[in-house]
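New to this. Please check this protein:
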Amino acid sequence: MKRLTALLTTLTVMLMLEGCAMFEALKARPEQPAPRPSEVVVAPYNGNALHNFYMGRQYVAEGRYELAREHYLLALASAREETMRDALVAELQSVDRLIKTLR
């Protein structure tokens, strides 16, 4: 019986010593501030127009002017911004001149 009492007393003391840490977890912690939204830089252009513009430039670099012209026309059809349209019109004019030069 003495051993049982000593064991229970020891367990109670151990729980009381760990109780400080145990009760700290139960206390209300100050709320963490919300994470700041990351600033993402995105091109203001249509993704389809950008892709076709890029493909057109690749084809011009390869000397495949007819394919470049088709992709520039596709990009022009899907372009929403005036600056993109102006760039595509300039590229189309230069590709047309290259095609006329080769004929």
